[in-house]
Protein backbone atom coordinates (compact mmCIF):
# COMPACT_ATOMS: atom_id res chain seq x y z
CA UNK A 1 0.00 0.00 0.00
CA UNK A 2 1.29 3.45 -0.92
CA UNK A 3 2.22 5.64 2.11
CA UNK A 4 -0.15 8.56 2.57
CA UNK A 5 1.15 12.01 1.71
CA UNK A 6 0.70 13.98 4.94
CA UNK A 7 1.98 17.29 3.51
CA UNK A 8 -0.62 20.07 3.91
CA UNK A 9 -2.14 20.45 0.46
CA UNK A 10 -3.67 23.72 -0.59
CA UNK A 11 -6.35 22.79 -3.17
CA UNK A 12 -6.37 26.35 -4.52
CA UNK A 13 -2.66 26.13 -5.33
CA UNK A 14 -2.87 22.63 -6.81
CA UNK A 15 -5.29 23.52 -9.57
CA UNK A 16 -3.72 26.83 -10.50
CA UNK A 17 -1.28 27.43 -13.30
CA UNK A 18 2.00 28.71 -11.84
CA UNK A 19 1.36 32.43 -11.28
CA UNK A 20 3.69 35.01 -12.75
CA UNK A 21 5.91 36.24 -9.95
CA UNK A 22 6.34 39.90 -9.16
CA UNK A 23 10.07 40.60 -8.97
CA UNK A 24 11.12 42.63 -5.90
CA UNK A 25 14.62 44.06 -5.58
CA UNK A 26 15.55 43.75 -1.90
CA UNK A 27 18.49 46.15 -2.25
CA UNK A 28 16.43 49.21 -3.24
CA UNK A 29 16.17 52.35 -1.06
CA UNK A 30 16.28 51.27 2.62
CA UNK A 31 17.40 47.83 1.43
CA UNK A 32 16.71 45.94 4.68
CA UNK A 33 14.22 43.59 6.30
CA UNK A 34 11.35 46.04 5.79
CA UNK A 35 11.15 45.16 2.06
CA UNK A 36 10.79 41.48 3.00
CA UNK A 37 8.06 42.11 5.58
CA UNK A 38 5.97 44.38 3.36
CA UNK A 39 6.35 42.26 0.22
CA UNK A 40 5.45 39.04 2.06
CA UNK A 41 2.39 40.58 3.74
CA UNK A 42 1.10 42.12 0.49
CA UNK A 43 1.76 38.89 -1.44
CA UNK A 44 -0.28 37.02 1.16
CA UNK A 45 -3.18 39.52 1.01
CA UNK A 46 -3.29 40.05 -2.78
CA UNK A 47 -2.61 36.40 -3.63
CA UNK A 48 0.22 37.30 -6.02
CA UNK A 49 3.48 35.30 -5.97
CA UNK A 50 6.69 37.25 -5.35
CA UNK A 51 10.39 36.66 -5.83
CA UNK A 52 12.64 38.86 -3.70
CA UNK A 53 16.26 39.03 -4.84
CA UNK A 54 19.27 40.80 -3.26
CA UNK A 55 17.73 40.29 0.20
CA UNK A 56 19.28 42.81 2.63
CA UNK A 57 22.10 43.38 0.14
CA UNK A 58 23.24 46.59 1.84
CA UNK A 59 23.69 45.05 5.29
CA UNK A 60 26.98 43.89 6.86
CA UNK A 61 25.60 40.32 6.97
CA UNK A 62 23.35 40.15 3.87
CA UNK A 63 20.56 37.64 3.34
CA UNK A 64 17.98 36.25 5.73
CA UNK A 65 18.68 36.35 9.47
CA UNK A 66 16.67 34.20 11.96
CA UNK A 67 14.36 37.17 12.60
CA UNK A 68 13.42 37.53 8.91
CA UNK A 69 13.16 33.80 8.32
CA UNK A 70 10.68 33.31 11.19
CA UNK A 71 8.60 36.23 9.85
CA UNK A 72 8.46 34.72 6.36
CA UNK A 73 7.56 31.31 7.76
CA UNK A 74 4.79 32.90 9.83
CA UNK A 75 3.26 34.57 6.76
CA UNK A 76 3.56 31.37 4.73
CA UNK A 77 1.85 29.50 7.58
CA UNK A 78 -0.95 32.09 7.70
CA UNK A 79 -1.75 31.69 4.00
CA UNK A 80 -0.81 28.02 3.42
CA UNK A 81 1.84 29.28 1.03
CA UNK A 82 4.95 27.75 -0.48
CA UNK A 83 8.36 29.26 0.35
CA UNK A 84 11.49 28.62 -1.68
CA UNK A 85 14.98 29.75 -0.73
CA UNK A 86 13.93 30.33 2.88
CA UNK A 87 17.18 29.49 4.69
CA UNK A 88 19.57 31.54 6.84
CA UNK A 89 21.79 33.83 4.67
CA UNK A 90 19.70 33.19 1.52
CA UNK A 91 19.58 36.28 -0.71
CA UNK A 92 16.76 35.05 -2.99
CA UNK A 93 13.39 33.95 -1.71
CA UNK A 94 10.07 33.13 -3.40
CA UNK A 95 6.62 33.09 -1.80
CA UNK A 96 3.61 31.58 -3.58
CA UNK A 97 0.62 32.34 -1.33
CA UNK A 98 -2.48 30.24 -0.83
CA UNK A 99 -5.63 31.25 1.02
CA UNK A 100 -5.35 33.08 4.34
CA UNK A 101 -6.73 30.95 7.14
CA UNK A 102 -7.51 31.69 10.76
CA UNK A 103 -6.17 29.59 13.60
CA UNK A 104 -3.24 29.45 15.99
CA UNK A 105 0.09 30.47 14.51
CA UNK A 106 3.43 30.53 16.34
CA UNK A 107 6.69 32.24 15.37
CA UNK A 108 9.89 31.96 17.40
CA UNK A 109 13.03 33.82 16.37
CA UNK A 110 15.01 31.78 18.97
CA UNK A 111 17.07 34.96 19.37
CA UNK A 112 16.36 38.47 20.67
CA UNK A 113 14.83 39.24 17.24
CA UNK A 114 11.93 41.65 17.64
CA UNK A 115 8.41 40.34 18.30
CA UNK A 116 7.21 43.80 17.19
CA UNK A 117 8.60 43.15 13.70
CA UNK A 118 6.96 39.70 13.62
CA UNK A 119 3.65 41.39 14.40
CA UNK A 120 4.31 43.98 11.68
CA UNK A 121 4.41 41.26 9.01
CA UNK A 122 1.60 39.04 10.38
CA UNK A 123 -1.05 41.53 11.50
CA UNK A 124 -2.14 42.80 8.05
CA UNK A 125 -2.44 39.19 6.79
CA UNK A 126 -4.53 38.02 9.75
CA UNK A 127 -7.02 40.83 9.07
CA UNK A 128 -8.02 39.08 5.85
CA UNK A 129 -8.60 35.63 7.39
CA UNK A 130 -12.02 33.97 7.68
CA UNK A 131 -12.15 34.19 11.50
CA UNK A 132 -10.07 35.50 14.40
CA UNK A 133 -6.44 34.35 14.65
CA UNK A 134 -4.14 33.79 17.62
CA UNK A 135 -0.48 34.62 17.11
CA UNK A 136 2.15 33.49 19.63
CA UNK A 137 5.29 35.55 18.95
CA UNK A 138 8.57 34.77 20.70
CA UNK A 139 11.82 36.71 20.77
CA UNK A 140 12.89 40.12 22.04
CA UNK A 141 10.17 42.47 23.32
CA UNK A 142 12.50 45.46 23.70
CA UNK A 143 15.13 45.19 20.97
CA UNK A 144 17.46 47.64 19.22
CA UNK A 145 16.51 48.89 15.74
CA UNK A 146 12.90 47.78 16.17
CA UNK A 147 9.71 49.03 17.85
CA UNK A 148 9.58 48.17 21.55
CA UNK A 149 6.42 46.21 22.40
CA UNK A 150 5.33 49.23 24.49
CA UNK A 151 5.44 51.35 21.32
CA UNK A 152 3.28 48.81 19.50
CA UNK A 153 0.67 48.92 22.28
CA UNK A 154 0.66 52.65 23.07
CA UNK A 155 1.33 54.33 19.69
CA UNK A 156 0.80 51.90 16.81
CA UNK A 157 -2.34 50.17 18.16
CA UNK A 158 -4.58 53.23 18.80
CA UNK A 159 -3.70 54.72 15.41
CA UNK A 160 -4.24 51.57 13.29
CA UNK A 161 -7.57 51.12 15.08
CA UNK A 162 -8.68 54.25 13.16
CA UNK A 163 -8.42 52.12 9.97
CA UNK A 164 -10.76 49.54 11.56
CA UNK A 165 -7.99 47.18 12.74
CA UNK A 166 -8.90 45.30 15.92
CA UNK A 167 -6.35 43.26 17.89
CA UNK A 168 -5.52 42.45 21.52
CA UNK A 169 -1.97 41.93 22.72
CA UNK A 170 -0.92 40.25 25.97
CA UNK A 171 2.75 40.54 26.97
CA UNK A 172 3.34 37.24 28.78
CA UNK A 173 7.10 37.56 29.17
CA UNK A 174 9.61 40.28 28.33
CA UNK A 175 12.85 39.23 26.65
CA UNK A 176 16.07 41.22 26.21
CA UNK A 177 19.21 41.07 24.10
CA UNK A 178 21.11 38.79 23.56
CA UNK A 179 18.91 35.83 24.60
CA UNK A 180 15.39 37.02 23.88
CA UNK A 181 12.95 34.65 25.56
CA UNK A 182 10.05 37.11 25.42
CA UNK A 183 6.54 36.04 24.45
CA UNK A 184 3.43 37.94 23.41
CA UNK A 185 0.04 36.55 22.49
CA UNK A 186 -1.95 38.52 19.92
CA UNK A 187 -5.57 37.96 18.94
CA UNK A 188 -6.53 39.52 15.60
CA UNK A 189 -10.11 39.95 14.43
CA UNK A 190 -10.79 39.87 10.68
CA UNK A 191 -12.28 42.81 8.75
CA UNK A 192 -14.23 43.09 5.47
CA UNK A 193 -12.16 46.07 4.35
CA UNK A 194 -10.03 48.82 5.89
CA UNK A 195 -11.35 52.36 6.03
CA UNK A 196 -9.25 55.42 5.07
CA UNK A 197 -7.85 57.72 7.74
CA UNK A 198 -7.30 61.47 7.83
CA UNK A 199 -4.81 62.88 10.36
CA UNK A 200 -4.12 66.50 9.49
CA UNK A 201 -4.46 68.45 12.77
CA UNK A 202 -1.90 67.86 15.49
CA UNK A 203 -3.57 69.95 18.22
CA UNK A 204 -1.78 70.57 21.54
CA UNK A 205 0.27 68.09 23.53
CA UNK A 206 -1.91 67.24 26.54
CA UNK A 207 -0.13 64.35 28.26
CA UNK A 208 3.41 62.98 28.62
CA UNK A 209 4.02 59.65 30.34
CA UNK A 210 6.27 56.63 30.09
CA UNK A 211 8.21 53.83 31.74
CA UNK A 212 11.87 53.46 32.67
CA UNK A 213 12.69 49.83 33.43
CA UNK A 214 15.42 47.52 34.63
CA UNK A 215 15.31 43.72 34.47
CA UNK A 216 17.50 40.91 35.73
CA UNK A 217 20.50 41.78 37.87
CA UNK A 218 20.54 45.51 37.06
CA UNK A 219 19.96 47.91 39.99
CA UNK A 220 16.69 49.83 40.36
CA UNK A 221 18.48 53.20 40.61
CA UNK A 222 19.26 52.97 36.85
CA UNK A 223 15.53 53.25 36.15
CA UNK A 224 15.22 56.27 38.44
CA UNK A 225 18.24 57.95 36.84
CA UNK A 226 16.91 57.41 33.29
CA UNK A 227 13.49 58.81 34.25
CA UNK A 228 14.95 61.86 36.05
CA UNK A 229 17.25 62.75 33.12
CA UNK A 230 14.35 62.44 30.65
CA UNK A 231 12.08 64.68 32.74
CA UNK A 232 14.85 67.34 33.06
CA UNK A 233 15.39 67.33 29.29
CA UNK A 234 11.68 67.63 28.40
CA UNK A 235 11.14 70.35 31.06
CA UNK A 236 13.52 72.68 29.19
CA UNK A 237 11.06 72.78 26.30
CA UNK A 238 7.66 71.84 27.75
CA UNK A 239 7.22 73.54 31.10
CA UNK A 240 3.47 73.45 31.71
CA UNK A 241 2.71 69.70 31.63
CA UNK A 242 3.06 67.14 34.40
CA UNK A 243 5.41 64.40 33.17
CA UNK A 244 4.76 60.95 34.63
CA UNK A 245 7.56 58.46 33.90
CA UNK A 246 7.32 55.39 36.12
CA UNK A 247 10.47 53.64 37.30
CA UNK A 248 10.01 49.86 37.25
CA UNK A 249 12.00 46.82 38.29
CA UNK A 250 10.84 43.79 36.31
CA UNK A 251 11.40 40.50 38.06
CA UNK A 252 8.95 37.64 37.49
CA UNK A 253 7.89 38.31 33.91
CA UNK A 254 11.22 39.06 32.25
CA UNK A 255 14.11 36.91 31.03
CA UNK A 256 17.63 38.28 30.78
CA UNK A 257 19.14 41.58 31.86
CA UNK A 258 18.08 44.82 30.27
CA UNK A 259 17.26 48.45 30.88
CA UNK A 260 15.60 51.15 28.85
CA UNK A 261 13.04 53.90 28.70
CA UNK A 262 10.11 54.78 26.49
CA UNK A 263 8.18 58.08 26.71
CA UNK A 264 4.84 58.88 25.08
CA UNK A 265 3.16 62.17 24.22
CA UNK A 266 -0.55 62.45 23.42
CA UNK A 267 -2.22 65.36 21.64
CA UNK A 268 -5.69 66.89 21.95
CA UNK A 269 -6.66 65.39 18.55
CA UNK A 270 -5.58 61.82 19.42
CA UNK A 271 -2.11 61.88 17.84
CA UNK A 272 0.57 59.78 19.56
CA UNK A 273 4.36 60.21 19.61
CA UNK A 274 7.22 58.40 21.33
CA UNK A 275 10.91 58.54 22.13
CA UNK A 276 12.86 55.55 23.42
CA UNK A 277 16.34 54.24 24.16
CA UNK A 278 17.82 51.00 25.46
CA UNK A 279 20.72 50.64 27.86
CA UNK A 280 24.13 49.65 26.51
CA UNK A 281 27.26 48.54 28.27
CA UNK A 282 29.33 51.53 29.32
CA UNK A 283 26.58 54.13 28.69
CA UNK A 284 25.40 56.13 31.72
CA UNK A 285 21.71 55.91 32.64
CA UNK A 286 21.18 59.67 32.34
CA UNK A 287 22.50 59.58 28.75
CA UNK A 288 19.85 56.97 27.92
CA UNK A 289 17.13 59.14 29.48
CA UNK A 290 18.40 62.20 27.57
CA UNK A 291 18.47 60.27 24.25
CA UNK A 292 14.84 59.12 24.62
CA UNK A 293 13.63 62.61 25.62
CA UNK A 294 15.45 64.24 22.68
CA UNK A 295 13.87 61.74 20.29
CA UNK A 296 10.40 62.55 21.65
CA UNK A 297 10.98 66.32 21.42
CA UNK A 298 12.26 66.00 17.84
CA UNK A 299 9.05 64.19 16.90
CA UNK A 300 6.86 66.83 18.56
CA UNK A 301 8.65 69.89 17.11
CA UNK A 302 7.67 69.34 13.47
CA UNK A 303 3.93 69.68 14.26
CA UNK A 304 3.00 66.61 12.19
CA UNK A 305 0.48 64.01 13.37
CA UNK A 306 2.73 60.92 13.49
CA UNK A 307 6.31 60.33 14.58
CA UNK A 308 9.14 59.14 12.35
CA UNK A 309 8.61 55.49 13.35
CA UNK A 310 4.86 55.27 12.84
CA UNK A 311 5.07 57.02 9.47
CA UNK A 312 6.26 54.00 7.46
CA UNK A 313 4.21 51.47 9.49
CA UNK A 314 0.96 53.11 8.30
CA UNK A 315 1.77 52.87 4.58
CA UNK A 316 0.48 49.29 4.16
CA UNK A 317 -2.84 50.19 5.84
CA UNK A 318 -3.24 53.31 3.66
CA UNK A 319 -2.50 51.18 0.58
CA UNK A 320 -5.08 48.52 1.48
CA UNK A 321 -7.87 50.87 2.65
CA UNK A 322 -10.86 51.71 0.49
CA UNK A 323 -10.75 55.46 -0.19
CA UNK A 324 -8.32 58.33 0.30
CA UNK A 325 -6.13 58.62 3.40
CA UNK A 326 -4.22 61.81 4.25
CA UNK A 327 -1.60 62.04 7.00
CA UNK A 328 0.53 65.04 7.96
CA UNK A 329 4.07 64.06 8.95
CA UNK A 330 7.52 65.47 9.57
CA UNK A 331 10.27 64.84 7.00
CA UNK A 332 9.49 61.71 4.97
CA UNK A 333 11.90 58.95 5.98
CA UNK A 334 13.73 56.50 3.71
CA UNK A 335 11.73 53.68 5.37
CA UNK A 336 8.52 55.43 4.30
CA UNK A 337 9.74 55.95 0.73
CA UNK A 338 10.63 52.23 0.63
CA UNK A 339 7.22 51.21 1.97
CA UNK A 340 5.47 53.35 -0.66
CA UNK A 341 7.61 51.85 -3.44
CA UNK A 342 6.71 48.27 -2.40
CA UNK A 343 3.02 49.10 -1.83
CA UNK A 344 2.70 50.65 -5.30
CA UNK A 345 4.46 47.67 -6.85
CA UNK A 346 2.15 45.09 -5.27
CA UNK A 347 -1.21 46.93 -5.10
CA UNK A 348 -3.12 49.46 -7.21
CA UNK A 349 -2.68 52.13 -4.48
CA UNK A 350 -1.38 55.55 -5.60
CA UNK A 351 0.61 57.79 -3.24
CA UNK A 352 1.49 61.46 -3.46
CA UNK A 353 3.69 63.46 -1.09
CA UNK A 354 3.39 67.24 -0.91
CA UNK A 355 4.98 69.89 1.30
CA UNK A 356 2.62 71.62 3.75
CA UNK A 357 1.76 75.19 2.83
CA UNK A 358 0.64 76.01 6.37
CA UNK A 359 3.13 78.47 7.95
CA UNK A 360 2.88 76.84 11.38
CA UNK A 361 3.87 73.51 9.91
CA UNK A 362 6.43 74.57 7.33
CA UNK A 363 8.59 71.50 8.04
CA UNK A 364 5.77 69.05 7.47
CA UNK A 365 4.55 67.00 4.53
CA UNK A 366 1.23 65.43 3.59
CA UNK A 367 1.23 61.80 2.51
CA UNK A 368 -1.93 61.10 0.52
CA UNK A 369 -3.01 57.70 -0.73
CA UNK A 370 -5.81 56.52 -2.95
CA UNK A 371 -6.10 53.03 -1.46
CA UNK A 372 -6.59 49.80 -3.37
CA UNK A 373 -9.70 48.82 -1.39
CA UNK A 374 -8.58 45.24 -0.71
CA UNK A 375 -11.57 43.06 0.20
CA UNK A 376 -11.61 40.11 2.56
CA UNK A 377 -12.95 37.40 0.23
CA UNK A 378 -13.83 35.16 3.20
CA UNK A 379 -16.40 37.59 4.66
Can you describe what's shown?
It is a single chain. Helix content is 30%, strand content 27%. It is globular, with a radius of gyration of 21 Å. The strands form 4 sheets. The chain has a 5-stranded mixed sheet with strand order 5-6-8-7-12, covered by helices on one side. Strands 1-2-4-3 form a 4-stranded mixed sheet, covered by helices on one side. The protein is an alpha/beta fold and 379 residues long. Strand 13 and strand 14 form a beta hairpin. The chain starts with 10 loop residues before the first helix and ends in a 9-residue tail after the last strand. It is built from 10 helices and 17 strands.
With strands numbered from the N-terminus, the spatial order across the biggest sheet is 5-6-8-7-12
The global form is globular
Please give the largest β-sheet.
5 strands, mixed
Helix content: 25-40%
> What's the mean pLDDT score?
90
SS strand fraction: 25-35%
The number of distinct β-strands equals: 17
**Content-based structural category:** alpha/beta
Low-confidence stretches: 1-18
**Distance linking N and C termini:** 41 Å
Rg value: 21 Å
Order of helices and strands: HEHEHEEEHEHEEEEHEEEEHHHEHEE
Give me the number of helical elements.
10
